[in-house]
Amino acid sequence: MSDDIQLDNSDFLNSLLSGNRSMCSKIIQEHLKNQIPVQYLYENIIKKSLYEVGELWESNKITVATEHLASAIVEAILNELYFTIVGGKKNIKSVVVSCVENEFHQIGIKMVSDIFELNGWNSFFLGANTPTNELIKFTKIIKPDILAISLTLNYNLPILERMIQEIRKEITDLPVLVGGQAFTRGGKDAVAKYSNVIYLPNLNAIDLFIKNFQPTN
Ligand code: B12
Q1: Residue 176: in which H helix or E strand, if any?
Q2: 110 in ligand 1 pocket by Cβ < 6 Å?
Q3: What is the pLDDT along the chain (217 residues), one digit of tens a residue?
């Protein structure tokens, strides 16, 4: 996707750090007007900036408050884009997307949700810290074609594993997508042993997966 586009994220990052929501919004809207795909903006402007915010925070160059401000602005911008994203044709497929229990990082999985919507799917976005029993109950009611779960913190990997085991007891053949930053630090083997649990690294891979998806029933 968009291999030839090369956009710099520094204006967006600086606007985030100074809490300038309207400038952040304007930058994204300008790029959209110039036909830059949402997926590209998510990966190369927004995600890149948040990763840099994380590094600045880790090295005490910005405060926790500034980091909270940055993530609040990003969430507002993703919500603003919603109608750009759902405008297209709908199909009848659906996905439930959620973070594991004890996981408050919900921006990545919101992006995942939007990629499904861009492909015409109905996405049920449950967001951060969903209790496993509630996720299972909800999934059994909705009967989605896919369940997608996000994991950012390595120490939540055992929770994800328990979650997969519980899901498999009750919903045997539902494809489960997993992803998130925790997997850049291991954990792929832990999930690979479960049937029909698929790790994907980023939005490009998800988009490809959706476009080739063949339901089993
Ligand atoms: C914003 C933020 C927060 C916010 C989150 C707010 C929100 N509404 O989401 C808050 C303040 C809650 C937070 C809290 C904490 N955070 Co924090 N946070 C971040 C920060 C700066 C940005 C996160 C983000 O949105 N990234 C951008 C998204 C788009 O990227 P992404 O999640 O990786 O998603 C992409 C892929 O991974 C993939 N993907 C994601 N999910 C899924 C799911 C599926 C199914 C698939 C296929 C793909 C996929 O698709 C996305 C697009 O490519 C990161 C820095 C960073 N490197 O990300 C730190 C960071 C993740 N946090 C960190 C830490 C330590 C914490 C705390 C423990 C801090 C503390 N002491 O309290 C708590 C933990 C809270 C908890 N229990 O979850 C560390 C984690 C380090 C580690 N090794 O695990 C990081 C890396 C910062 C750092 N450099 O130290 N945080």
Answers
A1: strand 176-179
A2: no
A3: 456 788 999 999 999 999 999 999 999 999 999 999 999 999 999 999 999 999 999 999 999 999 999 999 999 999 999 888 887 677 789 999 999 999 999 999 999 999 999 999 999 999 999 999 999 999 999 999 999 999 999 999 999 999 999 999 999 899 999 999 999 999 999 999 999 999 999 999 999 999 999 876 5
Kindly state if the Cβ of 206 falls inside 6 Å of ligand 1: yes
* 37 CA distance to ligand 1 middle (Å): 23
Report how far residue 61's alpha carbon sits from residue 55's, in angstroms, rounded to the nearest whole number. Answer: 9
Task: Return the SS3 of 147.
Answer: strand
This prediction's pTM: 0.97
CA 217 to chain CA centroid, nearest Å: 26
Shortest-distance Cα residue to atom 54 of ligand 1: 54
Contacts of 207 (CB under 8 A, 6+ apart): 1, 39, 115, 118, 119
What the chain holds in terms of domains, given with CATH numbers, is: 10-85 (1.10.1240.10), 94-211 (3.40.50.280)
**Cα dist. 49→10, 15, 109, 139 in Å?**
8, 10, 16, 33
